[in-house]
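User: Teach me something about this protein's shape.
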Amino acid sequence: MNDSYNGFQSFFEIVVADTPELLEAVYRIRYQVLCVQNTFPDMNADDYPNQLEKDEYDDHSCHALLRFKSTGQYIGAVRLILVDPNNPEKLFPVEVNTQVDSQLCDLESIHRVDVAEISRAVILSQFDRRKGERRKPGDDESNGSTARSDNNESRRRVVRSGDSKSNGNVIRSDRDRRATDRRSTPHLSLLLMACVMRLSVKHNIKHWISAMEPALNRLLRFYGLNFHCVGPAVNYHGIRRPYCIKVDEVLSRMHKENYESWEVLTECGKYNLSF
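Assistant: First, the predicted structure itself:
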């Protein structure tokens, strides 16, 4: 087991949100991040008087929380939108709000029950150190070596500066952790993807789709989690592009080329799909 995995296990816990109380925690974190901290510029906190951000897709979604062990605080959340059992032909948000090129991702040829959309991946601002790394210049379709170089430099800069707006290996909220511990902790974006992996195994999901910021895909690419871009940029809660990936494809590649990240994503193979 590598240092990143050990850091993950030492400081964080994944909690599947399968009770009303845990779901309320999910919606409250989303309200705080998306509406109050205004991560989604088109969302207004005044529109959510109960301080819970919930939409029409939540009733056919599964959810997970990321818990910070030393305080017991839930610091992040993510959901997988599943096919609506009451309306199997209902479109996913990516299909409604972006322009998916069917030649690059033919969703009509895939059994919809095998597909889930990664959505509402959020981290509370005091922990969210990924923003600075997302804003690096350049197109997300640049080659892998460029993306890796960019993210290596970004990781070094985060460690050096302790910038409170980046999501690196340093977490200011836990002041008692030693610098070596900080460096061993994986990006919280990767930990949210470990949440996604656990949910995917539970629901036997074989394909992931998502509308994400291009720079986030560059960040995930550093860990071997690069999704395929399948359409142009659109203005959907900010500038985003549609992406897709076959789960066993990315697991196989990570196992060969990014084994440390594979251990984090699958929790050392505990949550895995055959490949």
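Now, about its shape. Confidence is low (pLDDT under 50) at residues 132-140, 142-183. Residues 50 and 84 are 26 Å apart (CA to CA). If you'd like, I can walk through any region in more detail.
User: That's plenty for now, thanks!
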